[in-house]
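Hey team,

Filing this mostly as a record. A colleague (T.K.) asked me to run one chain through the structure pipeline before their review meeting, and I want the input and output archived in the tracker in case anyone asks later how it was produced. No errors, nothing strange. Just documentation.

Input sequence:
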Amino acid sequence: MPRTLRPGQRSELYVVEVGTGDSRLVHSSSTVLFEAPNWTPSGDLLVNGDGRLFRVGDGLEEIDLGGVPAINNDHVVSPDGRTVYVSADDGHLYAVALDDGTPRRVTNDRGPGYHHYLHGVSPDGTTLAYIGLEHVDGRRITNVWTIPAAGGDDVQVTDDEHADDGSEFSPDGKWIYFNSERAGHAQLFRIPAGGGEAEQLTFDERVNWFPHPAPDGSAIAYVSFPHGTEGHPADVDDVRLRLLSADGEIRELATLFGGQGTMNVPSWSPDSTRFAYVVYPL
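Output structure:
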């Protein structure tokens, strides 16, 4: 079931200017718990909520998904802006034409209980990066996978029993960034897009999730939870939005009440000057 707001809670969408650190409120709702802000190449902001997808304008304008099952908060837009790819609650990924809502299932049947969680599309638009979740002997196993956007064979990129999430391509398509608990708790990593050895990028005591590389490669935005946090829960105090620069410097841009839904998917503006996030004040 889609998440809903608690009594007295709001969803608030902000855009932060990276250069100044100033945040601007774009939209607020006391009725719809919206999540996971995303940008189209033309500069429109998208969010999901109540199992649906919306374009943010004066309000929330629902996008026709052509009868796709209710979606969760994992969605990306193709580089040409013509297609939105979504993760549905039936466990599959779908491509939906933004001009007329025509849907197409992308993923293959991988067995009962298998779920695909979408996080990235390659810069040339040909490949999707997702997290494959399977249940093995009562355990939840997650790994990074890719699949052609047109449909085809799945390719496994990581193969381990550590919790991996948030797989997203670098701007040149050579790397996939992700978070993993292989270091003891969630830290940021990257791995060659075709597979290989993972490289750790953060090393602090906080629990770091969802690395989002800027389109120009200048920095990585990510969500940082307090030490000891398990998973990426909702409604956490002292969640921080951070930037990891190309030279390894970490800069904090915001501290907020949120977590799950705050910044799950690529949230940079096309010109790399801003990114969007959601907070959930009570």
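Quick notes for T.K.: The two ends are 21 Å apart (CA to CA). The chain has a mean pLDDT of 97.
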